[in-house]
Amino acid sequence: MPEPKQRGLNMDLGNPWTLISGLVIGLVGMVLFMYGKREQNLRALGAGVVLCVYPYFVASVVLMWVVFALVLGAAWALGKYE
Q1: Are 54 and 26 in contact (CB under 8 A)?
Q2: Is 59 helix (H, G, I), strand (E, B) or coil?
Q3: Average of per-residue pLDDT across 39-63
Q4: For a designed S-S bond to 29, which of 52, 71, 78, 80 qualifies (C-beta 3.0 to 4.6 A apart)?
Q5: Measured distance CA(76)–CA(47) in Å, rounded
Q6: pLDDT for the residue 11
Q7: Helices (H), 1-82
Q8: Which pTM value belongs to this model?
Q9: What does the pLDDT look like over 55-80, one tens digit per residue?
Q10: Residues whose CB falls within 8 Å of the CB of residue 58, separated by 6 or more in sequence, listed in order
Q11: Running DSSP on this structure, what letter comes out for residue 55?
């Protein structure tokens, strides 16, 4: 007879690459945020906040990296063509 499942003991963290990607992207976001705060650069500050927050809401690794590239590309383009 199978044992009944206990709630809360089977924690499914999903794909480990999701966790690693979120950590790396969040760290890059933290560095950008600190740089933007120190240099009073709103582009870097905004990009840092976005990179720190959005990995909590995205479960796809590919989508995470696509958004990462888009945010960094937009920050770079706004800085270059301003």
Answers
A1: no
A2: coil
A3: 92
A4: 52
A5: 10
A6: 40
A7: 16-39, 42-53, 61-80
A8: 0.78
A9: 888 888 899 999 999 999 999 998 88
A10: 64, 67
A11: G
